[in-house]
Amino acid sequence: MIQLFSTEFWIAVLFGINFILVVFLFLIVKKINLVSSSSAQDRCEDIEEINGAQTEHAGHIMNMLEPLVQDAAKTAKTFEAQIREKKRIIKELNDALDARIININLLLSRAEKLQKKLENEHRMANRQISVNPDSFPVAPPDTMLDQQNRIIEMFNMNLDVESIADKLSIPEGEVRLVIDLKKKFMAMEAEGR
Length: 193
Fold this sequence. Notes:
By secondary structure, this protein is mostly helical. Helices cover 85% and strands 0% of the residues. It has helices at residues 7-37, 40-131, 144-156, 161-168, 172-192.
């Protein structure tokens, strides 16, 4: 919702109202002093005038303040609703972020297991080559960073996820993960500038 007036505006309005009330009280005290110095008969007449004026001024001030108080109450309710909505959104974002972190940790765990498996297979292949030098030499597996760089290069050449996964012989999920993370890092860098 659109906020009608800022908090500073309401503070200024309240300050103005307090100032008017202080001036009003000052005038009342001044009138009371004048009344006390007058004769008894003058005092009665002055008191009746003051009471009438006070009643008139109080009614006028109340009429002026009533819409302001109502607007302040509406603004406070709107502000409270906006705060509740923002808290709800923040909670949803935190929950989604937690889920992503868990997924990334699972993927990292799988990647570590796959890397260990590939390293073991590489060692086994190297042992076979040393035992049988006539066998076909096995190239060392790419490091994860090289593989990620190749995924990004292919994506920048406008290849789709399926094509990249086929060419590199890796699951499409890993390709999507690398591309999504790269996009997020680029967006974060752009925001940081």
